[in-house]
Amino acid sequence: MHSSDKDTLKTNFLDDIIKELSLLRGGEVSSGTGEGGTKKRGRGANTTNQVNLSNQSVIRGAGGEGEVAHLKSIVVLLLEAVKHLTEQQGRNEEREGGKVVKDLQDSLRRQEDELDEVKQRSLKGNIILSSDRRNGSVIKSDEELKRSGKSICDHTLDLIREKYNVFIPIADVQACHRLKNNNSIILRIWNRAPGSAWWSFIDAIKSGMNRSYNLFANFQLTSRRNELSYHLRKMRKEKKISKIYTNENGQLCFKVHDQGEKIKVTYFSKNSSDCPCTWSTTDIDKFVSKK
User: Fold this and answer.
1) E-assigned strand segments in 216-283
2) What is the pLDDT of residues 63-116, one digit of tens each?
């Protein structure tokens, strides 16, 4: 409610209450405004005053009955004032409360997006290698490696050289070990300087070379981005989108049509003044449905 509306409301109710109190005391109450107004006496008068209140006419006569009528009118006015102000306050609080909730939701979403981006950056340099067991996995078991006298790291670098024709020096490797399913290996490369084997490896992964070799390399993603990636792959399988793109920074993009533009999904800004955001699966679905 604007301050002018509140002032008008207070003035109207106060005017009515003052009139009722004046009549109750037997004072003079003006029936008009300005010089043209006439005055009528209170309970000593022989005339009957008629006041229209809340679409009801209250007839007040002389003596005790008039006083009771005035008191009833005052109580009604006060109750109406309290009721109206309470309802208005409730509506204002509801609007303000809704805005507070919306602001909190937006703030939480921004923080979640930022934390996901920070976590994804910490995963840069991590590659997950896997092989399809149904087609004869090329990843050897620990028993097989023990018999051949090779470490898991040596074996992984051999697989990369066989698949992608890229030689990665063991000195560039920070960590290498199996994942829980025992048929996937995570490799972390610390040397990502320009001109290093890392960049040759990245280019080879993106080119998809030697597709017949049963080894797959994927950039490690956060759990949130893994969910988005799975959703996009499912949409591609259902032919709702055409292509999916992932890079070493964990960025996800897709194309609805082969000749269409790349649509960014992770931590991007539409305008320079906007805060970066990462889409949800619902955001992706809404966008694609409009195309």
Assistant:
1) 216-219, 243-246, 252-255, 263-264
2) 566 666 767 777 777 777 777 777 777 777 777 767 777 888 888 899 999 999
The region that residue 213 occupies, defined by phi over 0 for left and psi between -120 and 50 for alpha, beta otherwise, is beta
Question: Does residue 178 surpass a pLDDT of 90?
Answer: yes
Cα(153)–Cα(63) distance, integer angstroms: 107
Q: Which of 65, 25, 30, 64 is nearest to 42 (CA)?
A: 25
CA distances from 209 to 42, 127, 166, 219, 221 (A): 103, 16, 11, 16, 22
CA 205 to chain centre: 34
Q: Which residue has the higher pLDDT, 101 or 229?
A: 229
Q: How far is 205 from 45, CA to CA, in rounded Å? A: 103
